User: Which sequence fits this backbone?
């Protein structure tokens, strides 16, 4: 048996699907420049045609065909040489579309392998969210704003070649920088400029050792799949009951309405953003509650609308339909460590909550400047200089 | 002859990193397909996405028609084909089933359509993963059905499919089944033949007297009573009597033109020479099968694997001859056939039928239902199934049908 290499790319569905595919192509073709066979594929249970859904792409490469086939027979690689996270908000873990519980981003790293994250955060900041692992590994960042585009278009901002530069540095046995350079120069548009970008990433990428026990200690949610005889017949699923009144944590009064929700499909990593509500400016117009596609708003006993963050998928419709300026603001998931109720915090200490919510809202990127989604022709071209500048600073 | 050799050197095969679905799109381009219809359903849709890209980039010239559903999609190409156009179509899972009415008339009207089935589980539950029941649903209607297991085989088979389908002795459709995700969405390095090679291998589409054209006035698809139907059916039955020979001939030509050895077109044997027991299966489960067979061989077990390519026409005589030399056989079905004999999968039942009239020994045939809805068939699953087959070979009583890889 020869040597098998596996690379795992963790990305956001739709927004980064083409990017992930292009990176995997680059891996296979760069390694092929050294005579190594390889192939690339998406994780089979994923459905990456959903906005923002966490998904995975892989490239596997071997020193010979039989070893590659042995790698293919494992389907999703269980031991990877490097994991690259294309959006740092995914560091909280992955919830696949096909629900498998919450999976840590470092779950499949071989001992001492590299976890590379595209982020402007520091390593200690990322480690607050990345779950602990029972083996040591190495963590490094590729400085930059996560690159998001759409289903049918691709933002050619050099993220692909920069990631490939990082891989050449972290796993030199997979492919050398000169093999990468040959791939970029012969197969990509603007080859000369992209070689420069790859080279900068290659030279600048550094990593730190993460010891066993370092990181986020929150337990990962797991889910036990039932045996066939334990399941209901007729492809039927038990529905949710109606739900009922909720309790005011300050007064103990019962009122409002909390719908019953799935106890297993809890959302967390499916979001890149979450709504932060300024309850004091809320006019109780009901629009957020009416328009939420996931029925994630609770009607509180005092008639306010509180997002259940285990149910919210972060789509931002509430922010768009809210008629009051700055009442609901979508804020990067990076600002939050848990799914605690904002309304409960508001009821407990209004002044403290107000200050907290204002600080979070101040950290938000204005709607028209958010990097994901495709709104007008020429938009990506306009964003490239700023993205390149951010990358060059790193 | 010397001139040909020079031409071959000048136009070398290119290598491309493409998915199985994209490989079929490339074959459509090389085959200069005239009419392509598209209606999206995963996992087949990547093939038409890629064709639309080739058309938009000016690399391929065809009528690309986005239909409003699978039924229309297959009707449009059926009519285009009758009028002399080389056509391509495809679908997956319930999309294929929605086109069922058109799928029944396509072989009856002797339409040499090439279709790709991105194998997908039928609803319910709605699922994207591979199951072979979609393509198998047309197994009695005159479609030629083949299962492939690599992106290279996708491309090669699509070229072969046009040659076979349009052979005047055939003039019936071919459906190429590709396991959803595992094959349709995995990118592998594929050798893309030159246009000159393809032109040498694939003559222009010629329906002859079956062409619907103002210069050749014919009417098709009439309403008949009992005085006519049996004779019409017999004419299509005659195609199936010829099919094995025509396919063999086309593969022999393929090897000559493209210089790639395929061997037996109908099934591929892996480490069977001195095997006591073998597994038989279709599609991409060949990958874990080959890996597991190598592992078991290293442990001294005499085991092998037979990958069935052509399911229609079913190579009964050759397969019976091959399989009767083993002590026991296990058939891995990525399909179900509820209420069938011994409650086995489709392929297991067909293999038992193929063995029955043979003169040779009749080894026990165990059926395994496995890998449904895209569940991975893993190396330990293959080992487990092979162990059951070895027990049957040793004369032990083993159930005729078992589910493998099920939560129970």
Assistant:
């Amino acid at each position: 048996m020869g040597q098998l290499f596996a690379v795992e790319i963790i990305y956001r569905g739709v927004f980064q699907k083409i990017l992930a595919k292009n990176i995997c192509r680059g891996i296979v073709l760069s390694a092929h420049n050294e005579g190594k066979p390889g192939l690339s594929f998406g994780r089979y249970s994923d459905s990456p045609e959903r906005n923002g859904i966490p998904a995975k792409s892989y490239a596997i490469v071997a020193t010979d065909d039989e070893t590659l086939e042995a790698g293919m027979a494992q389907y999703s690689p269980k031991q990877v040489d490097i994991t690259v996270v294309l959006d740092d908000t995914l560091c909280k873990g992955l919830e696949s579309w096909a629900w498998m519980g919450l999976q840590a981003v470092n779950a499949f790293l071989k001992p001492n392998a590299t976890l590379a994250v595209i982020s402007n955060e520091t390593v200690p900041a990322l480690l607050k969210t990345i779950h602990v692992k029972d083996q040591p590994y190495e963590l490094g960042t590729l400085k930059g704003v996560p690159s998001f585009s759409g289903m049918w278009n691709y933002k050619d901002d050099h993220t692909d070649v920069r990631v490939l530069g990082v891989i050449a540095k972290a796993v030199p046995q997979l492919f050398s920088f000169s093999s990468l350079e040959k791939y970029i120069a012969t197969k990509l548009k603007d080859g000369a400029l992209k070689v420069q970008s790859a080279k900068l990433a290659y030279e600048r990428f550094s990593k730190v050792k993460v010891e066993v026990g370092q990181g986020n200690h929150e337990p990962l949610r797991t889910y036990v799949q039932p045996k066939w005889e334990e399941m209901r017949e007729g492809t039927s699923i038990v529905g949710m009951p109606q739900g009922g009144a909720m309790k005011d944590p300050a007064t103990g009064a019962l009122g409002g309405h909390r719908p019953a929700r799935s106890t297993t499909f809890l959302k967390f990593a499916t979001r890149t953003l979450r709504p932060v509500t300024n309850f004091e400016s809320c006019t109780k117009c009901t629009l957020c509650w009416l328009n939420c596609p996931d029925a994630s708003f609770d009607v509180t006993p005092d008639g306010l609308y509180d997002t259940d963050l285990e149910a919210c998928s972060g789509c931002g419709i509430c922010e768009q339909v809210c008629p009051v300026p700055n009442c609901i603001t979508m804020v990067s998931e990076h600002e939050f460590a848990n799914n605690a109720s904002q309304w409960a915090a508001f009821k407990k200490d209004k002044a403290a909550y107000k200050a907290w919510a204002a600080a979070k809202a101040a950290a938000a990127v204005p709607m028209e400047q958010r990097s994901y989604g495709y709104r007008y022709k020429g938009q990506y071209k306009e964003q490239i200089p700023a993205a390149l500048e951010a990358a060059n600073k790193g | 002859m010397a001139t040909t050799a020079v031409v071959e050197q000048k136009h070398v095969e290119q290598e491309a990193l493409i998915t199985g679905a994209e490989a079929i799109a490339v074959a459509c381009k090389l085959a200069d397909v005239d009419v392509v219809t598209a209606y999206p359903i995963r996992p087949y849709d990547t093939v038409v996405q890629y064709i639309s890209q080739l058309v938009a980039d000016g690399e391929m010239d065809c009528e690309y028609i986005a239909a409003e559903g699978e039924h229309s999609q297959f009707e449009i190409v059926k009519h285009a084909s009758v009028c002399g156009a080389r056509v391509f179509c495809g679908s997956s899972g319930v999309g294929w089933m929605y086109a069922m009415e058109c799928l029944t008339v396509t072989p009856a009207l002797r339409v040499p359509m090439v279709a790709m089935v991105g194998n997908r589980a039928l609803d319910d539950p709605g699922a994207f993963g591979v199951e072979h029941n979609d393509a198998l649903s047309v197994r009695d209607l005159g479609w030629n059905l083949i299962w492939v297991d690599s992106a290279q085989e996708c491309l090669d088979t699509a070229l072969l499919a046009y040659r076979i389908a349009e052979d005047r002795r055939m003039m019936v459709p071919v459906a190429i089944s590709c396991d959803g995700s595992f094959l349709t969405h995995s990118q592998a390095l594929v050798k893309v033949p030159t246009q000159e090679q393809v032109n040498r291998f694939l003559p222009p589409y010629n329906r002859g007297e079956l062409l619907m054209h103002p210069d050749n006035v014919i009417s098709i698809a009439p309403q008949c009573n009992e005085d006519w139907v049996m004779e019409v059916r017999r004419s299509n039955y005659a195609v199936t009597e010829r099919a094995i020979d025509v396919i063999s001939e086309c593969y022999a030509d393929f090897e000559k033109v493209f210089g790639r050895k395929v061997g037996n077109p109908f099934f591929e044997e892996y480490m069977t020479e001195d095997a006591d027991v073998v597994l038989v299966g279709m599609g991409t489960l060949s990958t874990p099968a080959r890996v597991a067979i190598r592992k078991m061989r290293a442990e001294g077990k005499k085991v092998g694997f037979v990958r069935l390519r052509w399911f229609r026409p079913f190579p009964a005589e050759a397969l019976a001859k091959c399989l009767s030399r083993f002590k026991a056989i296990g058939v891995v079905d990525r399909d179900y056939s509820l209420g069938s004999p011994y409650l086995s999968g489709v392929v297991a039942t067909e293999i038992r039928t193929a063995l029955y009239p043979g003169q040779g020994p009749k080894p026990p045939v165990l059926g395994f239902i496995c890998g449904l809805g895209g569940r991975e068939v893993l190396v330990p699953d293959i080992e487990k199934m092979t162990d059951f087959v070895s027990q049957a070979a040793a004369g032990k009583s083993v159930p005729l049908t078992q589910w493998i890889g099920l939560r129970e």
Observations:
- The interface with chain A takes residues 17, 42, 124-125, 128-129, 181-182, 185-189, 287-288, 290-292, 294, 374, 376, 378-379, 406-408 of chain B (CB under 8 Å).
- The first helix of chain B runs from residue 2 to 10.
